[in-house]
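Renewal narrative, Specific Aim 1. Our central claim is that a sequence can be written position by position from structural information alone. The example that follows is taken directly from our test logs and has not been curated for this report. It begins with the structure tokens describing the chain, in the order in which they were read.
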């Protein structure tokens, strides 16, 4: 929580700020999740996004059908093949999202101090007087005085396409509201958010299950973004559902915290989920503005200490229409990194923004600059203190590897892993150098056929700060004799040299299993 101490204590020479940043193979340690959509679904654009630093592609099923997203995914596969850049796939569920149904897609003008009726009767045409919605229980959920926000899907906040409503009276199933600001609702999809109101709808809807079954399972999605996670039970139910879908039992669940309900149950949700997405758009509506930063810092700290990836959303909204972020947005991205974020998620900026590639590039550059002044020493001490003693065997090895790497000024840490757990634990201590996670495939059988695991584990590290995966030859097991590990190590070192992160005479810290023992060793490279 003491974020001011996360800056390096040495004073920064002001002239050094003007020195141009040196390009590197890894644009930043912080990862970037890009939402693919109308402006970012061609093979060329996706290829440019991957080169700019996108490592996770998000498919948002709040709009677009399975066929549309499948075509985008096929383009992503072609882009991965041509760029040779790994990219994970995230499916974002709709969840209990309330929507205004505007079948005609005609613009709707709303005037300040006028009234508008929200009705569950979807047979009515959307107009300035009536807005049909997809939820029949709104009249029972809200009371006079409640605040309701209606905005374009993935609204950026700078648009005049969003409106605040105040409930004045309930009439049967209809909710009559006073319009608080003049706005024009344009487009086909508007989301409706009721501030601090419980919506009695399942977190994983039947529609979501159908999408996961028919689109997620065949495509072996790496991450499921569980929208509107409100209780720990939401995550458990989603995991139980995924476990019945073959390969999806390995899919990681990221709980998306979007309202006060999820915030109140944050600790329990964090224990059960594989990672957390802080959906600051909706949280910014649910929370008083002056409390948003406090939630961010507190939530990121908890995720860091638990060693679970934390993703921050809504950072450069203005880049949806502009080539440069605002000063506040640029500072916000840097603060998200200094607060401990693993990844930055871009929504409207890449989905329908005019500059998807430039946005990814600029966010990556800001992250890289913030990482240079991240006070790793203080963070390391705080994490070790939080873990306490006695440490588990694996935690002790991971923290020792990071400490050794920093002391000898290693250029990279190489970690051999099968499940990815060891590499994630090393990343938890936020080393200042990249961690090459060499995932060794394991042979498994379902008694009908044999198959190798490893691809899931490799891609799932693409959302963890500082982790860069490579899939090893399955003939070299992670726990093996010294000789077989040496050959895999040579492959990893060659990969590091080819990518420019390892040079002659560099020191490298290697974390591996030899027989029953875990070993951390320091090697110095020859010419």
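The sequence written for that structure reads:
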């Amino acid at each position: 929580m003491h974020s001011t101490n996360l800056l390096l204590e040495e004073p920064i020479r002001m002239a050094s700020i003007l020195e141009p940043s040196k390009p590197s193979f890894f644009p930043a340690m912080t990862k970037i999740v890009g939402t693919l959509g109308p402006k970012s679904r061609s093979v060329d654009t996706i290829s440019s996004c991957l080169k700019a630093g996108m490592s996770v592609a998000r498919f948002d099923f709040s709009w677009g059908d399975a066929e549309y997203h499948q075509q985008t995914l096929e383009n992503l596969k072609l882009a991965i093949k041509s760029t040779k850049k790994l990219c994970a796939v995230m499916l974002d569920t709709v969840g209990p999202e309330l929507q205004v149904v505007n079948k005609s897609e005609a613009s709707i003008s709303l005037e300040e101090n006028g009234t508008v009726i929200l009705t569950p009767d979807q047979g009515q045409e959307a107009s300035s007087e009536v807005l049909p919605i997809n939820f029949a229980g709104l009249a029972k959920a809200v009371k006079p005085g409640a605040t309701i926000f209606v905005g374009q899907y993935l609204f950026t906040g700078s648009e005049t396409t969003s409106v605040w409503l105040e409930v004045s009276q309930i009439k049967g199933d209809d909710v009559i509201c006073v319009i608080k600001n003049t706005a024009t609702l344009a487009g086909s999809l508007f989301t409706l958010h009721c501030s601090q109101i419980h919506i009695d709808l399942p977190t994983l809807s039947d529609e979501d299950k159908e999408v996961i079954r028919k689109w997620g399972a065949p495509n072996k999605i790496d991450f499921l973004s569980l929208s509107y996670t409100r209780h720990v039970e939401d995550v458990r139910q989603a995991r139980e559902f995924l476990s019945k879908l073959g390969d999806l039992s390995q899919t990681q669940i990221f709980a998306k915290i979007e309202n006060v309900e999820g915030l109140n149950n944050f600790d329990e949700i964090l224990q059960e989920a594989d990672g957390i997405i802080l959906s600051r758009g909706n949280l910014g509506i649910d929370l008083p503005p002056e409390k948003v930063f406090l939630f961010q810092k507190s939530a990121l700290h908890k995720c860091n200490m638990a060693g679970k990836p934390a993703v921050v959303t809504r950072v450069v909204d203005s880049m949806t229409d502009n080539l440069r972020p605002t000063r506040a947005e640029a500072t916000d991205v840097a603060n998200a990194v200094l607060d401990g974020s693993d990844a930055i998620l871009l929504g409207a900026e890449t989905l329908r923004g005019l500059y998807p590639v430039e946005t990814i590039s600029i966010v990556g550059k800001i992250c890289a600059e913030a990482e240079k002044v991240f006070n790793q020493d203080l963070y390391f001490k705080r994490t070790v203190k939080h873990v306490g003693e006695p440490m588990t065997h694996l935690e002790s090895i991971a923290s020792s590897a990071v400490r050794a790497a920093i002391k000898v000024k290693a250029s990279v840490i190489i970690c051999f892993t099968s499940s990815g757990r060891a590499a994630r634990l090393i990343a938890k201590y936020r080393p200042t150098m990249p961690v090459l996670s060499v995932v060794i495939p394991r042979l498994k059988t379902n008694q009908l056929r044999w198959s190798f695991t490893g691809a899931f584990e490799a891609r799932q590290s693409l959302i963890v700060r500082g982790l860069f995966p490579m899939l090893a030859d399955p003939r070299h097991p992670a726990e093996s004799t010294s000789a077989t590990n040496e050959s895999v190590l040579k492959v990893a070192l060659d990969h590091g040299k080819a990518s420019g992160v390892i040079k002659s005479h560099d020191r490298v810290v290697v974390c591996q299993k030899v027989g029953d023992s875990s070993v951390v060793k320091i090697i110095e490279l020859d010419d």
